[in-house]
Specification:
Blueprint: H1 2-9, H2 12-47, E1 57-59, E2 62-64, H3 66-104, H4 108-124
Antiparallel strand pairs: 1-2
Helix pairs in contact: 2-3
């Protein structure tokens, strides 16, 4: 039973998943810091304050904290924008360049055809 447990822990997929999870947490912390420390002060300059959680209203002794929702919505939109413009778009551009370079390289079969054509041209001279 111990051997089975050890084999389970040593599976490649589990280790890769653990590494991806840890890197995902680190990346999330980086993006959160970027939004909170760089983007939200810009929002505060434009709107006047970066945190709206103090905005509330009361109906029949029930307190509605709509300001916290507004703050969460702004953080969500700015986080999504930061990921899109600083991660997704640059990665798309990099992948397009890489795939373009690979597309320009002839395949092995095409290269053999080119070599054979060059050999035929040389022998025809």
């Amino acid at each position: 039973m111990i051997k089975d447990f050890r084999d389970f822990l040593m599976r490649g997929n589990l280790v890769e998943l653990a590494v991806a999870f840890v890197l995902g947490l680190a990346f999330a912390a980086l993006i959160t810091s970027f939004v909170n420390d760089l983007i939200m002060p810009i929002v505060a300059m434009i709107i006047g304050k970066p945190d709206f959680s103090g905005l509330t209203f009361t109906i029949n002794d029930a307190l509605f904290g709509y300001g916290a929702f507004i703050t969460a919505a702004i953080v969500f939109v700015t986080t999504a924008a930061a990921i899109f413009f600083f991660v997704v778009k640059p990665m798309e551009m990099i992948m397009a360049r890489v795939s373009k370079a690979k597309a320009e390289e002839p395949s092995d079969e095409e290269r053999r055809h080119q070599e054979l054509l060059a050999a035929i041209r040389e022998s025809a001279r």
